[in-house]
Design goal:
- The protein is built from three helices and five strands; from the N terminus they run H-E-E-H-E-H-E-E.
- The chain is an alpha+beta fold.
- The radius of gyration is 15 Å and the shape is globular.
- The two termini are 16 Å apart.
- The relative contact order is 0.24.
Length: 156
């Protein structure tokens, strides 16, 4: 099932990937009431990370911003696996992003703009959200970025 949101993704030259398989004992997304909570999504592309390392060292902030966009696309795939159709999204409520950072890197918010700007392109006003951008020492598989969403679905 696909609708206006997936048509918008196609206009942007994107297609929802399959839901990334969990790396441990958890679900990619769960629903509670009208909310979908995603697990942290890495920037996986066809089952592997396109790059690894710390932002501000092995990975440039610009590369990391693109990886954040990929994380967001993967998170949307996880949301769709629960909602059935992304047109049911009433609002992206919260985005939490983790950036594996070199010790002197402080540009986490700019990296996470890759996801935030993407959500605005796809959902318009429904994509405007609260956000946390957190610098961390290391992420699973040495990923540079990891993102999770809280999404509200339309009633019904």
């Amino acid at each position: 099932m696909s609708g206006a949101i997936e048509a918008r993704l196609a206009e942007l030259g994107l297609k929802l990937p399959g839901v990334a398989a969990p790396l441990a004992a958890y679900q990619p997304a769960v629903r509670s009431g009208n909310y979908v909570y995603t697990a942290g999504q890495l920037p996986m592309v066809e089952g592997s990370l396109p790059t690894t390392g710390k932002v501000g060292a092995e990975v440039t902030p610009e590369e990391a911003k693109e990886l954040a966009r990929t994380c967001a696309l993967n998170a949307l795939a996880a949301v769709k696996s629960i909602a059935g159709d992304l047109d049911r999204v009433a609002r992206i409520v919260k985005v939490t992003g983790f950036v594996a950072s070199a010790t002197d890197f402080t540009g986490q918010p700019a990296v996470l703009n890759g996801a935030s700007e993407f959500l605005g392109e796809v959902f318009g006003e429904k994509g405007v959200h609260a956000r946390s951008a957190v610098g961390v020492a290391v992420l699973p598989l040495d990923a540079p970025v990891e993102i999770e969403f809280i999404v509200e679905l339309e009633q019904g």
